[in-house]
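debug: dumping io for the single-chain case to check the tokenizer round-trip. Nothing else runs in this session.
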Amino acid sequence: MFIDVAKIYVKAGKGGNGAVAWRREKYEPSGGPYGGDGGKGGSVILVADEGIRTLMDYRYKRSYYGQNGEDGRTKKQYGKDGEDIVLKVPVGTIVKDEKTGKAIADLKKPGESFVIAKGGRGGRGNAKFATSTRQAPGFAEPGTPGEERNIILELKLLADVGLIGYPNVGKSTLLSVISQAKPKIANYHFTTLKPNLGVVRIGEDKSFVVADIPGLIEGASAGVGLGHDFLRHVERTRVLVHVLDASGSEGRNPIEDYYKINEELFQYSDKLREKVQIIAANKTDIPSSTKWIEQIKAEFEPQGIEVYEISAVTSKGIDRLLYAIWNTLSIIPVNYDTFDEEFIEDELVEEDKELVYKENGKFIVEGKNIERLMQSTYMDDYDSLRYFQDTLKKKGIVDRLIELGIKEGDSVFICGYEFEFFN
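debug: decoded output
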């Protein structure tokens, strides 16, 4: 089975908490803070792997977690970092944020990697908070949570050549003849339910990858038939070989077929007009092809479109077609960009600014940094509470509250906790 879209949930590991510890040794009467930092959480990393061909594995397992960092220990020992988790995906996988639908990364080179969820930062131990005026801090920082997100993995094949055309025109047979691929072949529509890849070798250091793109019928751009499931795979190809049934054996007009298929391509993305197309007039071993060949050439050759008479069954004209494809590829630069994605730098980058506002007569302070500060504050410890107050002043939160009209003795709600204001 070929799976080219998968939705998964990833969550990086939480950073370890900093430790509160004291140095207590026989000949060190003054002791001192001795708590170490927590380890950082493990990240979730995507890596493009040539050995992976589908997204099948992600159909059965949908959630992936990085390892949490260990808490800090006494003697200023750091906690162990959490292990990263590496997820292998096929080369050509685009990573999208499920919430926005925007692309985050495009892994189109073997070995290319991307950190999709960064591990949390380890909290500082109490040894890091010692100063000349605060020699015995009785508090430490908690580790920060790891990033988490729902993502969509979407595979867009990396093939040099795409075989396009109506069902049953002989695309799969042609692929089986020119490569070692063994696609399912039968005389009925939609035999091919997945894109098939084959490597074509025509000489020393002369080879290219061909993809049989199924599902293209009238209305495909609107989702008819297999529609968008496979149109995405056309985007990365450098040359399109348009296979026509030159015998008219299906009762269709091959010239009309050409225009109908192209109309679907161009409705999907107008940029597909820029792709070079070569016509492979197939089934010329059938006598009825004689009249159609002349009409096909008369229609397309004046437009500068090359027409090659072939028979995938008898191999007639196959070598000439392959060399024409190779010569065309040699003058077209490799470009695996796609057309329809809006890329973003990092959807998880959030503003760390604190929100200070007044609502229904209440003074409110919120924000991720403030929430983290709250978690690391020991309210019954004088040094810890003083550090909390000093940090609020340094961040300008006290000044903003005064601008909003707060007075001595008024209540202020910080991350849901009520405090009495004193300046």
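debug: round-trip ok. The two ends are 67 Å apart (CA to CA).
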